[in-house]
């Protein structure tokens, strides 16, 4: 019985020794592979970080110019700016610090990464499709059937956009990053392998590779990249949030305090061909004798919260407008009434005509 116990103790020692050979190898390579994965994520982080930074910069500004409302001049400077910042912050593979570190590598137990390169550029392939449509088509009435399009009517091109010149499809920014990744001599390249060894396969080959932010290197080059579409609400500036009172007697005349907003809305109106014909005008002229406004003219009114959303006054027109003013301004004293000012012209719905 004692001989059996001695044999058991010896067998455990042998099993432990043999198990440690495999266990230590697995642990070393587990640490190495974990380091490769972690350091590769830092390269990915260096490419994505400047994309989010780019969303903080202005893309365009609204101008008081009817022909060219939007200015995208600042857009081209975004990519170089975020690229330079990311390159400085991630040169040491740690973007948490707010100052540039002189270190250009990161060394761990079995793995080393160095020479971080971040590249960002304006990218027209990152795009969105603006709403497209033809201008409203006018049909000639046909008895008992749908109307038909008159010959030669200009309904525009299918690729026309009502937002052209206001929100241009200028694209976005794309970024990529790469670094040199290698295994260190601390990871043994040979360990009990060969014909007389415990392992039949070679223990390890020192790793030398290019780590890419996305995908794998093809022909030694990192082709993958990340992109983001940029744009901002150009009407958020104080200079385009001014008042714009209604001016029915002055179509197509911009309000002095908010020209950029006015011209932007007018540009959309123009792109849609303005009014779809003059049927309403003809209707009013036939039954009343006159049309109060030019239905093809552009009118826009905007009042901010500071005005309690109430028009205090209406533009001066005919002298008799003073009679209607307390009722048509929408003010506090506004009380709807069927009364109308005296007129020598018939008004629709009134039996006195």
UniProtKB/TrEMBL annotation:
Keywords recorded for this protein, A-Z: Membrane, Transmembrane, Transmembrane helix
Location of the region described as Disordered in the Swiss-Prot/TrEMBL record: 131-150, 308-353
Compositional bias of kind Basic and acidic residues: 311-336
Regions crossing the membrane: 12-34
Domain of life: Bacteria
Name this protein carries in UniProt: Pilus biogenesis operon protein
């Amino acid at each position: 019985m004692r001989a059996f116990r001695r044999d058991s103790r010896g067998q455990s020692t042998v099993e432990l020794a043999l198990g440690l050979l495999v266990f230590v190898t697995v642990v070393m390579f587990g640490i190495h592979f974990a380091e490769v994965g972690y350091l590769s994520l830092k390269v990915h982080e260096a490419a994505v970080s400047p994309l989010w930074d780019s969303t903080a910069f202005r893309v365009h500004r609204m101008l008081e110019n009817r022909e060219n409302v939007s200015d995208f001049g600042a857009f081209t400077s975004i990519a170089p700016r975020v690229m330079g910042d990311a390159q400085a912050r991630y040169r040491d593979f740690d973007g948490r610090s707010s100052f540039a570190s002189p270190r250009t590598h990161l060394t761990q137990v079995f793995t080393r990464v160095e020479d971080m390169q971040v590249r960002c550029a304006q990218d027209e392939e990152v795009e969105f499709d603006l709403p497209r449509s033809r201008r409203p088509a006018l049909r000639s009435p046909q008895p008992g059937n749908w109307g038909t399009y008159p010959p030669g009517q200009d309904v525009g091109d299918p690729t026309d956009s009502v937002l052209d010149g206001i929100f241009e499809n200028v694209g976005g920014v794309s970024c990529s990053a790469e670094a040199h990744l290698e295994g260190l001599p601390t990871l043994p390249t040979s360990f009990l392998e060969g014909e007389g060894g415990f392992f039949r396969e070679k223990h390890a080959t020192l790793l030398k590779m290019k780590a890419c932010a996305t995908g794998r290197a093809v022909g030694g080059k990192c082709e993958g990249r990340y992109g983001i579409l940029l744009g901002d609400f150009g009407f958020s500036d104080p200079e385009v949030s001014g008042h714009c009172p209604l001016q029915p007697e002055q179509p197509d005349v911009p309000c002095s305090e908010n020209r950029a907003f006015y011209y932007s809305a007018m540009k959309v109106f123009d792109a849609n061909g303005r009014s779809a014909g003059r049927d309403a005008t003809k209707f009013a002229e036939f039954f009343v004798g006159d049309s109060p406004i030019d239905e093809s003219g552009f009118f826009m009114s905007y009042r901010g919260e500071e005005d309690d959303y109430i028009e205090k006054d209406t533009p001066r027109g005919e002298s008799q407008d003073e009679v209607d003013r307390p009722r048509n301004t929408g003010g506090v004293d506004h009380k709807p009434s069927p009364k109308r000012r005296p007129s020598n012209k018939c008004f629709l719905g009134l039996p006195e005509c």
